[in-house]
Amino acid sequence: LLFSVSNLCGRCNPKDTDLLQPSLNFLYCSLHQTTPCSQQRAVVVLLSNVSLLEILQKVLKCTWLRSPPSEPAYLSSEDALLCSGWLLVASLVLYQHRYNAEVHQTLSLDPAEVLNAVIFRKKKPILLLVSIMQFLRAVLRQNFSSSLLVTVGQNTAQSATQPQPSSLQDAALHPFATEQVFLLVVSLQNLLVHKDFLLSQAVVACLESVVEYLYMKNQDVALHVASQPWHRFLLFTLLSGGQKSFLQPEVLRLITLFLRYQSSNIISQKEISQILQEAAEANVAELPEATSHALHLFLCQV
């Protein structure tokens, strides 16, 4: 069935949303809801289907051609197809690396366009933003070295006779420029203020991957990003209102991130003690799974 559906996708075009979108969803679910042995076989089937990978390339390209809707919360059929495409490609990037599967057709993307889709979001629906961030997180964790992807559009026309002021720093962060990274971090901070649960989880996970990527590339830039005073204001905004608000999963994961990179100007000993006190008073068995997992990571970091 997986083989048949993937072939069916390969015969579609991006305008066949009624058929293509549920088909991509089926492929995505097949990858995630199966045993590890079957998962490896599924990855091989999908990565060996050149037509499927070609239609995925066309679907992703539609992200830049998409006209923003009048209402950002509205998810059109075209947007739903984009969500399915980004999520499936993110999964293929992840599992191709995990199983070292052979790739028969590569996908080309410009990292700047992916970043700009988040930075200049232009009324994108939340689910589409989440899907793109899932992809961004997957490629960041692999240092843009995935065999499935070919990165294009970076540093191809830079003149050697006119070096930029931050050229050495930009080279260290390739394929990103330093300014792009700072813009991305600010955009992720702004998205957190929306306090949407699905969006918050995706944003924090993406921010974790961004700082981890920066730390691997240039520790000074990573520590600079992690210690920005704006993060403390962001935490105060997330903590406004409600009881035991420190036990929100996105707050716990953010604090864990700052602790990991020793941002003592963001998190104080007093706040760590307050979190421990709230955790001690909470009924851990009744905490939501996301909160319980975030609390576990925080305690391990402490």
Your description of this structure?
- This protein is mostly helical and 302 residues long.
- The protein has 2 domains: 1-153, no CATH class; 167-301.
- It is 66% helix and 2% strand.
- The chain contains 15 helices and 2 strands.
- Strands 1-2 form a two-stranded parallel sheet.
- Helix 7 runs parallel beside helix 10 (197-217), helix 9 runs antiparallel to helix 10 (197-217) and helix 10 packs antiparallel against helix 11.
- The chain is globular, with a radius of gyration of 21 Å.
- The N and C termini lie far apart (47 Å).
- Mean pLDDT is 88; it is low at 155-163.
- It comes from Pedionomus torquatus.
- InterPro entries: Immune_Signaling-Apoptosis_Reg.
Label this structure with key terms.
2 domains; two-stranded parallel ribbon; 15 helices; 66% helix
Fold blueprint:
Blueprint: H1 2-10, H2 17-32, H3 36-47, H4 50-65, H5 77-99, E1 107-109, H6 111-119, H7 126-141, E2 149-151, H8 167-172, H9 178-192, H10 197-217, H11 219-226, H12 230-239, H13 249-260, H14 269-281, H15 289-301
Parallel strand pairs: 1-2
Helix pairs in contact: 1-2, 1-4, 2-3, 2-5, 3-5, 4-5, 5-7, 6-7, 6-9, 7-10, 9-10, 10-11, 10-13, 13-15
